[in-house]
Amino acid sequence: MTTNCIHFDSPDIENAKGSGSISTLTFDIDITVEPISSDNPMAPTHRVLGRSPRGRLVECGGIWKKQNRDTGADYFTLTIRDFGFNANLGKAANQDDDTLQAVIPWGPKEAQ
Fold it and tell me: Which top-rank group of organisms is this from (predicted)?
């Protein structure tokens, strides 16, 4: 399995299930993502699930649909709470498969 990617079961990311892995210098986890529905426009589109040290499946983050302020294009962001990890999802490099999304990390904005 390619790391830092999520493979969804459909190119309709907002409604698709997926699985993947995220590896950094501080953690390395396999994840499962499940779509959720909510009437709240601020709610995530997906729950992100990982395994506890005892092997239990636990919710560890979420995926949100956002809109680019300049272009109006939709995109998705991912958060893993326990590690303070934030990322955008985007088409994986050299891939034509819209179901394969790269996890593109970004750090919190520095206080100014």
Answer: Bacteria
pLDDT in tens, 85-95: 999 999 877 88
Query: In degrees, to the nearest 5, what angle opens at C-alpha 91 toward C-alphas 89 and 94?
Result: 140
Report which residue type is found at 10.
S
Per-residue model confidence as pLDDT tens digits over 56-65: 999 999 999 9
Collapsed DSSP state (helix, strand, coil) of residue 14: helix
Phi, psi of 70 (to 5 degrees): -80, -45
Q: What is the DSSP letter of 38?
A: -
Q: What are the structure tokens assigned to 94, written together?
A: 């050299």
Would you mind telling me the total number of residues written for the chain in this entry? Answer: 112
Question: What letter represents residue 51's amino acid?
Answer: R
